[in-house]
Structures are given as C-alpha cells and as structure tokens.
Amino acid sequence: MRVRVKICCIETPEAAALAIRHGADALGLVGPMPSGTGIIDLETAGRIARSVPPPVASFLLSSATEPEEL
C-alpha cells in the first residue's frame, strides 16, 4: 500500500515545484475564502495548476458555492 501526500496552501509556482520535487502527489490551492492562510487569487491558482505535471494532481479549495463567485 502506498501513502499519497497532498500539500496544501501552495501560494507560488516555486512552492509548487518544491513540493513536487520532494514527492507531493497532489497540491492544494486556496482560492476565495472569507479568511485563512494561503489564499491566492484565481489567476495565480490557474498559473500554478497549469504548471503541475502529470501525475501530480492539483485541487482548488474555496468557500464559493456558485460558479459566479469564482
């Protein structure tokens, strides 16, 4: 059985590259939220997500409940 690791609150492409280089299987990007740490704008989240090579996954975490909020 293989343990998979997701690193959350990735804020920059450099942080994403570092996490991937050290074995991350997935990255969490924190988008629109009322508060918290690691919140980034959607343009930055998109740029980071596009830089993630397969098979590493990326996930956008948000409190938005409607597509218009994103």
Which helices and strands appear, and what pairs or packs with what?
Blueprint: E1 6-7, H1 13-21, E2 26-30, H2 42-51, E3 57-61
Describe the protein.
The relative contact order is 0.25. The protein contains two helices and three strands, in the order βαβαβ. It is globular and about 35 Å long. The protein has a three-stranded parallel sheet with strand order 1-2-3, covered by helices on one side. The mean pLDDT is 92. The chain starts with 5 loop residues before the first strand and ends in a 9-residue tail after the last strand.
Count of individual beta strands: 3
Low-confidence stretches: none
SSE run: EHEHE
Instruction: Please report which band the strand proportion falls in: under 5%, 5-15%, 15-25%, 25-35%, 35-45% or over 45%.
Output: 15-25%
Compute the gyration radius: what is it? 12 Å
Number of helices: 2
Taking strands numbered 1, 2, ... along the chain, how are they ordered across the largest sheet?
1-2-3
| Biggest sheet character | 3 strands, parallel
How confident overall, as mean pLDDT?
A: 92
Measured between the Cα atoms of the first and last residue, the distance is: 37 Å
User: What is the overall silhouette?
Assistant: globular
Helix content: 25-40%
Q: What structural class should be given to the helix and strand makeup?
A: alpha/beta
What is the structure about, briefly put?
The chain is an alpha/beta fold and 70 residues long. Helix content is 27%, strand content 17%.
